[in-house]
Write a structure and sequence with these properties.
The chain has 186 residues and is an alpha/beta fold. The protein has a single domain, classed as Double Stranded RNA Binding Domain (2-Layer Sandwich). Helix 2 crosses helix 3.
């Protein structure tokens, strides 16, 4: 019983490390305390071929989530010529392959006699499993009016074709909130 609990706890600990955390970087010479207004650089459009996740609907979700987060941080949207900072985002979708090794024996280990009963042995039946999936990346850039990148945040997450619009909206809102939690740097 203790071994089973220990195995479950170890698995949960390993899986907790699989969550993608946002990555961010910034120009330490930029004065972020002066940022009060923002504008979009250009309308962000999906790049590349047709893909279900690269759509105007998802772009609207991302724009709305970024604008909501910036508004909550006290930044006001203005015309590009009047902005303290310009905002843009990029999306990318990559195909990934996940590999696992799984035990296929119902009792995990099998024990038995060796050759003509001369040894004891333990064996484990393992299979290698592979799954293909899509990973989406969202990158949010903040650029100075002089066209210098001053802050960039990004996050990757697994995508699902079977998500409802509500789940997609929730995922976009969470990703944008997670990315912008470190903007502006203190």
């Amino acid at each position: 019983m203790r071994n089973t609990i220990g195995l479950l706890m170890g698995t949960m600990l390993l899986l907790s490390g699989c969550k993608s955390t946002p990555n961010y970087d910034y120009d330490s010479t930029a004065n972020f305390s002066k940022l009060k207004t923002y504008a979009w650089i250009v309308e962000s459009k999906p790049a590349g071929g047709q893909d279900y996740f690269k759509s105007d609907i998802n772009n609207k979700r991302i724009v709305n989530a970024i604008e909501r987060e910036l508004s909550s941080k006290g930044l006001r949207k203005v015309a590009p010529g009047e902005a303290n900072v310009l905002v843009n985002f990029h999306t990318a979708i990559n195909k990934k392959r996940e590999r696992d090794i799984a035990n296929t024996h119902p009792y995990f280990w099998s024990f038995g006699h060796g050759y003509h009963g001369s040894h004891w042995s333990a064996t484990m039946n393992l299979n290698s499993l592979q799954r293909d999936y899509k990973e989406g990346s969202l990158v949010v850039d903040f650029v100075s009016p002089q066209k210098q990148l001053i802050w960039r945040g990004s996050q990757e997450t697994r995508l699902s074709n079977k998500s409802t619009p509500e789940k997609r909206l929730e995922k976009v809102n969470k990703a944008v909130a997670d990315i912008l939690v470190n903007f502006p740097p203190l």
